């Protein structure tokens, strides 16, 4: 399934759309937006890319090929962003969500 909405950000007016009334799961595409939000916090001085985040075995979720290798030493925010985007690491995404106040 595919759908989209083209929105004029100045006016809020919908310019074009296809199946706009339907909801679609974002799946891993949200990870790019998540890392953008993290980088925005870095630019605002609210986060540091070099900050190390420690986590436990209990934090690991299915498909975490990078974070599962760093249980003892944790990972930096920079490394978590890279893992989330390049390897679609789900634990990395969850840890980053926490840093921006998400669920």
From TrEMBL:
- Tell me which residues make up the Beta-lactamase class A catalytic domain: 8-101
Q: Which domain of life is it from?
A: Bacteria
Name the chemical reaction catalysed here.
a beta-lactam + H2O = a substituted beta-amino acid
Entry GO MF terms: beta-lactamase activity
Signal peptide (residue range) = none
Gene Ontology biological process terms in this record: beta-lactam antibiotic catabolic process; response to antibiotic
Look up the EC number in the record and give it: 3.5.2.6
Q: Which Pfam families has this protein been placed in?
A: Beta-lactamase2
Top-level EC class: hydrolase
Keywords from the UniProt entry: Antibiotic resistance, Hydrolase
Annotated family: Belongs to the class-A beta-lactamase family.
Q: What is this protein called?
A: Beta-lactamase
Q: Which organism is it from?
A: Salmonella enterica subsp. enterica serovar Bonn
